[in-house]
UniProtKB/TrEMBL annotation:
It catalyses: L-threonate + NAD(+) = 2-dehydro-L-erythronate + NADH + H(+). SUPFAM superfamilies: 6-phosphogluconate dehydrogenase C-terminal domain-like, NAD(P)-binding Rossmann-fold domains. Its EC number is 1.1.1.411. Keywords: Carbohydrate metabolism, NAD, NADP, Oxidoreductase. Catalyzes oxidation of L-threonate to 2-oxo-tetronate. Can use either NAD(+) or NADP(+) as cosubstrate, with a preference for NAD(+). It holds the Pfam family NAD_binding_2. One of its GO terms (biological process) is organic acid catabolic process. It is an enzyme of class 1 (oxidoreductase). This is L-threonate dehydrogenase. Residues 6-164 form the 6-phosphogluconate dehydrogenase NADP-binding domain.
Amino acid sequence: MAKLKTAVIGLGSMGWGAAISLLREGLPTVGVDIRSEVLAKFEAEGGTTTTSPAEAVKDADIVFIFVVNAAQTEAVLFGENGAVAAARPNTIFALCATMQPNDAIELCERITDAGMRALDLPVSGGAAKALSGEMTLMAAGDPADFERAAPALDAIATKIFRLGDTPGMGSQVKMINQLLAGVHIAATAEAMTLGAAAGIDLKTLYDVISSCAGTSWMFENRGLHIVNGDYTPHSAVDIFVKDLGIVASEAEALGCPTPLTATSLALFKEASAAGLGREDDAAVAKILAAKGGVSLPNLPQN
């Protein structure tokens, strides 16, 4: 059987990891990005590159869309040099960005109306798991499309949750994941700032809490960023302004109270307004530290 030909549109931290994982499994992969340095790096890894979504999909069997949001997804699918118009009939498009569930449903419908196939396929796991091919997929779509796409999906993920035969539920579940992720990042920032204010050594605090009931995946990951004073963006503040905004909007439409989402979203918005939007999302700790006159590693004394 011929190997699946794949394309990855958007070589950010998650898209990059997915594209490298596909190459590692021997699947021919075209990477698409607007950054020349990223394309050169991907070529050095053995991939093929282009800046044009239309060019990338001409021979593809499955196309992963790893851009930031619904608007960018629509643009690469249906805008100038859009992928859908250039693809072969029945090409599978996997929508991996976090977006409003209704946007995912609408985009998937437009894809299928154009003679293509669509998977609602949000991902989780962070840059490290993306690079090792160990992402978690929250997936919804036609079972036949999952069967066709299986070699590529297995290359990028170790856990694939099938959440329905039609698009929508994948994005609904991802929304809940992002609620928890955003709240846990905010809680991590609060805990580490309070620890610093109390005079606790932050590395000691990190080691202790990581072994106690209060830990979370986000604490163990982002807490170390605060300990090291390293706010290199793996996932930026502005991502959670978007994602928690989706949660808040959907919750309001459903009439469901989400007070922790509201508080966390306000903190991320404040950090973004302070010029931290492109820093690592753990940089919300800087806002709390500034307000409390607390010194954190690699930050000026407040």
